Amino acid sequence: MADSFDVIVIGGGPAGYPAAIRAGQNKLTVACIDEWRNRDGTYAFGGTCLNAGCIPSKALLESTELYHRAREEFALHGIKTSGVSVDVAQMQKRKAGIVKTSTQGILALFKGAGVTPLQGHGKLLPGRRVEYTAADGTKRELTAAHVILASGSVPLELKCAPFQAPHIIDSQGALELDSAPKRLGVIGAGVIGLELGSVWRRLGSEVTVLEALPDFLAIADQQLAKEAARHFKKQGLDIRLGARVTGARVAGDAVEVAYEDAAGAHGLTVDRLIVAVGRRPYTKDLLAEGTGIELDERGFIKVDQQCRTAVEGIWAVGDCVRGPMLAHKGKEEGVMAADLIAGHFGEVNYKTVPAVIYTAPEIAWVGQTEEQVKASGRPYKVGVFPFLANGRARAMEQAQGFAKILAARDDDEILGVHIVGPMAGELIAEAVLAMEYSASTEDLQRTIHAHPTLSESLHEAALAADKRAIDSLNR
Ligand code: FAD
Ligand code: AMP
Question: Which of 302, 284, 425 is nearest to 355 (CA)?
Answer without folding.
Answer: 425
